[in-house]
Amino acid sequence: MKALVISGGGSKGAFAGGVAQYLIEQKKHSYDLFIGTSTGSLLVSHLASGKVDEIKEIYTNVTQRDIFSHCPFKIKTKHGVENIGIHHYNIIKNFIKGSKTFGESYNLKALIESSTSEENFNQLKQSKVDVVVTVSNLSLNQVEYKSIKDFSYLEFCEWIWISCNYTPFMTLVKKNGCEYADGGLGSMVPIEEAIKRGATEVDAIILQTEVSQFNRMPSLNPFSLLTNMFNFMLDRIESQNIRIGKFVATNNNAIINFYYTPTVLTTNSLIFNKEKMTQWWQSGFEFAKQINEKSSQLEITE
């Protein structure tokens, strides 16, 4: 059983899309299980349906307005570097409305529903392929994995959206009496879950460099401090997930093929820049091609 696992990473998901496109279209990899966290959850249903061009079109054209119905920050560019500044008016307005978060992401929910047809959903649900998204249940203090096999069209679209909600900057969702948020808060790279579900070979796309690098700008305001703190914690979670995934794979005779980003793509994955995301998609495709060609050459020489 072969699985494709895509980690969280916000706008960096464009790079993962390029890697996945190469693996599916050029290497002809056929997956039985697609499992994603956060931005990975946005990709997996389209990839499983073979709708690579559709999801590429979305990722290479998405803007802040497509994500945020109420954006809590402003993007400032200084010396070619993008940073976020507090959007005081939007935040105050959001709190007056009774929101528990700085911003809201209902536009993303609408985008997911408009870009995922019910017909494709039903075809995928009835197929042998399983699609799973990761969410964090804050009320029960646990990570949950939601399979397409268990939900209706609108329910599963909502779980995809919940998996991407990077609180406190995006919507905190109350569902079934519990509060849910971004799956990355508990499991950034769900390799362990893929193996538990029977995967014997896993292609894991990690939206982070393999070796730690200095990849964050100094904190300029409370928001940039918060994002730096969250990124630090998510990096630790990601490293732990990978170590556990390797351990579980060893004990279950499973193979993991890792695809890390070769360089630091961005210092803030909440910024959605069409031009950069288009470049990242192509970079992901070319990087996967390069890695696989090197592996083929090594096999020949051996």
Describe the structure.
Strands 1, 2, 5, 6, 7, 8, 9 and 10 form an eight-stranded mixed sheet that branches. The longest helix is centred in the C-terminal third of the chain and has 30 residues, at 222-251. The protein is 46% helix and 19% strand. It is of the alpha/beta class and 302 residues long. The model has no long low-confidence stretch (mean pLDDT 91).
Characterize the main sheet: 8 strands, mixed
Order of helices and strands: EHEHHHEEHHHEEHEEHEHEH
Compute the number of helices.
Answer: 11
Ends distance: 27 Å
**Based on CA inertia axes, which overall geometry fits?**
globular
Rg measurement, Å: 19 Å
Offer a concise description of the structure.
The chain is of the alpha/beta class. The chain has 11 helices and 10 strands. The strands form 2 sheets. Strands 1, 2, 5, 6, 7, 8, 9 and 10 form an 8-stranded mixed beta sheet that branches. Strands 3-4 form a two-stranded antiparallel sheet.
